[in-house]
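Hey team,

Sharing the KTSC domain-containing protein run so nobody has to redo it. Sequence (72 residues) first:
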Amino acid sequence: MSIERKPIRRGGIRSAGYDRGARILEIEFDTGSIVQYSGVGDEIARRFLASGAPASYYHDNIEDEFTARRVK
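Structure output:
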């Protein structure tokens, strides 16, 4: 599965994208690792992608709340 990511380049996050149909949020970190979070709803993904502080939003609302799968 390929998810189109948009550049974020803030707070250790290089890029991120969301597959609405599969409810998967994919985040690429500055370290080069890519992690997919499953079961993420539209509103959470939208708020994360639009956040002025994406790293804080990620730590508060995504990191420990959804199942993660490292893809790279």
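The first helix runs from residue 42 to 50.

Ping me if you want the raw files.
A.
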